[in-house]
Amino acid sequence: MSTTTMARDDGFRIGMLLSDTRYRSYTIQVIAMFVAMLGFAWLVDNTIKNLAALGKDFSFSFLWQPASYDINQTLIDYTSRSTNFRAAMVGILNTLLVAVLGCATATLIGVLAGVLRLSKNWLVARLMTIYVETMRNVPVLIWILITAAVINEFLPAPNQFRESVDPALRASPILGGLLVLTNRGFYLASPVWLDGSEILGIVLLICLAAAILFRRWAAKRQAATGRILPVGWIVAGIVVLPTLLAFLMLGMPIGVDYPTLKGFNFQGGVYARDSFIALWLALSLYTGAFIAEIVRSGILAVSHGQSEAAFALGLRPNRTMRLVVLPQALRVIIPPLISQYLNLTKNSSLAIAVGYMDVTGTLGGITLNQTGREMECILLLMGFYLVVSLVISAVMNIYNSRVKLQER
Amino acid sequence: MRSHHLMLGTAALALAAFTTAVSPSEAQASETLDAVKAKGHLQCGVSTGLAGFSFTGADGDWDGFDVALCRAMAAGIFGDPKAVKFTPTTGKTRFTALASGEVDVLARNTTWTMSRDADLKFEFTGVNYYDGQGFMVPKSLGVTSAHELDGATVCIQTGTTTELNLADFFRANNMSYEPVPIETNAEAQQKYLANACDAYTTDASGLAATRATFENPKDHVILPEIISKEPLGPLVRHGDPEWGDIARWTLNALLIAEEKGITQANVQDMAQTSEDPEVRRLLGAEGEYGKMLGLDNDWAIKAISAGGNYGELFAHYLGTETDIGLERGLNALWNQGGIQYAPPYR
User: Fold this and answer.
1) Pairwise CB contact (< 8 Å): B164 & A69
2) Candidates B31, B180, B238, partner chain A, best to mutate (most A CBs within 10 A)
3) Composition of chain B by helix, strand, coil, percent to 5
């Protein structure tokens, strides 16, 4: 009874599409694809019919109409007469600002917390455990709202900085007037470039170049002789001392623009709004907790023998961490880190909860609402987040391919 | 929390446009009315909470001036003011909710504007409150006019016409300001009370309603400037004029009732005894006017019985006897110095 040999002689029969394992998978794939395409076509068809039934057309011309609303935080010039497109760009830049800053601080916090959680110091390790567990087990939206509420409710209003307020209740700027913390945001004094500051800049550049050259030389020397110089201190000296000297000789060409209370609010300096601070801080702390766990897992993934070997060679713990463990841990850390960056960027769309005008607040919020172009706005919004996420993935993948284990 | 849901909601609604089945839009007696009758209740979009206009009472039921309009509509259709379900909407979600068919009618202090009418494809069916945008500031600020607000931080509800009026007002007066966009009235109130903004701006009625809920209402003043016209009214989708007629004439019936002295208490008697031809037509004692709307002939009796005539509703929810304490002002009837004017019922 050798039916298999019989079938082989028969050539192709239609029934074999199902019965023959060689063809069955193709059959299933073709059917699945057909069903998926049918479903997609149905969705598109329905959308078109529904829009027609509502009497709506599909057009992006609203993007070139005046937006007519104001936005508080604008990184580019914008007035209420600017177009909806420009309002969307303002929102996009605000999203990118908080995403980039958030990713940077989240990484910083995460690496620090991850390393410290492995500390032999019982108290430090437990504190980091508490940080990680409380942050990542409460939804990020709640953290954003809590942070905003803390800023709004507990920091003094600009009114409380006035001379006329009873001195016992009066609030005052900190750091000698360089920083003002109010419940409407933080004002930081900003530098003012006076005559001669260009020369100072040139001096600084020369010093930086000298410092880089020195570092190269020191590295070469260490490779040749094994002797280590206190590079950090020397570099700091090379950069700071001549610059400071030039600064004094040029008659201190950098002034300071202190925030001062004028009218209802502080004016001058750099203004970081409460909404921005709340969003940035909450996103960083929240994502930082996840990154801390990723960093911890990465470090634990490096075999203990590696650090023992480093210790045996006489490396101190922080050098062991920096030169031996972390470079190897990065291979494990980078891939999940990409998802955390993507998460942070997408979570920044919760901005409107605290009134931060990101792209979801401008294009997907006010513009959508005032023009009634739901479909177009949401599609543009989806497109934007898709592109940003793909770009982040691409960049991080390039970095990952550089740090991953080189197989030879 | 809310905003997150909002975004989800907006996205879901955009998606709903993808997936809701298409119903053929052939011209026939009100499709919406048929659909409403089939599901057994009216779905009404209201504000998420604005004292006097729409709020949930101690028993958990929706109540308020805007809510009462929906109850009157439901009463006119079903004879039962309870046959209505409410969807709380924010300034941002309301139009999507109406456009997508999630609600049948929107009664949510919404300003009647040209573009909402023509471009958003909605039909405003009257004005139940003539309003204007104002500013509220703490008394301690010492500000007495909106023209002194140069450089101020102003809280606004996002997705509203007030946002646009505010931009226009400051631009026209060559003043600068810092807008703080906020999702709902409750959040705005919290920010304003925390002094995170100097002024709060919305419709003057909304300011009065919000102020009434403060611990110390007397510490806050509403500035005299009214910077815009805000005719607030109920609205329905384009494409079903018969349904729009029902919404329009419900409001008109309440106005005519006030004009003719028909109240919640005497409406049954008036239907029996009144000799006034317009009252007789309105209350179904004469003619077939209810049928023209696709409703019962005594629909207006039921609508008026729900909460009373326009004047009674105003006095009950917003009037000077309430915490909100709004004068009738523009909203008095045309023959009493206001501009509330219903076309003749004939």
Assistant:
1) yes
2) B180
3) 45, 20, 35
By residue range, what is the domain housing residue B250? 30-130+231-336
- Residue B167: which of A80, A262, A368 has the nearest Cβ? A80
Q: Do B77 and B211 have their domain in common? A: no
Q: Render each residue's pLDDT in chain A as its tens digit; 408 residues.
A: 444 545 455 677 888 878 888 888 888 899 999 999 999 999 989 888 888 877 777 888 899 999 889 998 889 999 889 999 999 999 999 999 999 999 999 999 999 999 999 888 999 999 999 999 999 999 999 999 999 999 999 988 888 888 777 887 788 888 877 888 988 889 988 888 887 788 888 888 999 999 899 889 988 888 888 787 788 888 888 888 888 888 888 877 788 888 888 888 888 888 889 999 999 999 999 999 999 999 999 999 998 899 899 999 998 888 888 888 888 888 889 889 989 999 999 999 999 888 899 999 999 888 988 888 888 999 999 999 999 999 998 988 888 888 777 766
* B23/A46 touch (CB, cutoff 8 Å), yes or no: no
- CA nearest to A369, candidates B228, B101, B115, B168: B115
Does any domain span residue B102?
Answer: yes
Same domain for B328 and B241 = yes
CATH of the domain at B222: 3.40.190.10
Q: Is residue B41 part of a domain?
A: yes
Asked if residue B240 and residue B202 are part of one domain, the reply reads no
202-261 in chain A: CB under 8 A from chain B: none
Q: Which residues in chain B have their CB less than 8 angstroms from residue A40's CB?
A: none
Into how many domains does chain B fold? 2
Residue of chain B minimizing CA distance to A271: B178
Q: How far is A202 from chain B (nearest CA, A)?
A: 38
CA distance B8 to A381: 13
Per-residue confidence (pLDDT) for residue B5, from 0 to 100: 46
**Residue B153 and residue B193 in one domain:** yes
Residue A117's nearest CA partner among A284, A297, A285 is A297
Contact A97, A382 (CB under 8 A): no
Residue from the list B10, B14, B151 with its beta carbon closest to the beta carbon of A263: B151
Q: Are B116 and A389 in contact (CB under 8 A)?
A: no
- Residue B180 in any domain: the answer is yes
Residue B13 resides in a domain: no
B86 in the same domain as B183? no
Contact between A205 and A248 (Cβ < 8 Å):
no
Q: Which residues of chain B have a pLDDT value below 70? A: 1-29
- In CATH, which of 3.20.20.210, 2.60.120.260, 1.10.3720.10, 3.50.50.60 is domain A84-189+258-403? 1.10.3720.10
| Exposure letters A147-180 (e unless 16+ CB within 10 A, then b) | bbeebbeebbbbbbbeeeeeeeeebebeeeeeeb
Determine contact, residues B56/B274, Cβ cutoff 8 Å: no
pLDDT tens per residue, range A80-120: 899 999 999 999 999 999 999 999 999 999 999 999 998 88
Q: Do A50 and B177 touch (CB under 8 A)?
A: no
Q: Are B254 and B322 contained in the same domain? A: yes
Residue A15, Cβ density class (10 Å: 0-12 exposed, 13-18 middle, ≥19 buried) = exposed
Do residue B293 and residue B145 come from a single domain?
no
Asked which of B228, B254, B276 is the last residue of a domain, the reply is B228
Q: How many residues does chain B have?
A: 346
Q: Which of B192, B208, B228 is the last residue of a domain?
A: B228
Q: Do A263 and B152 touch (CB under 8 A)?
A: yes
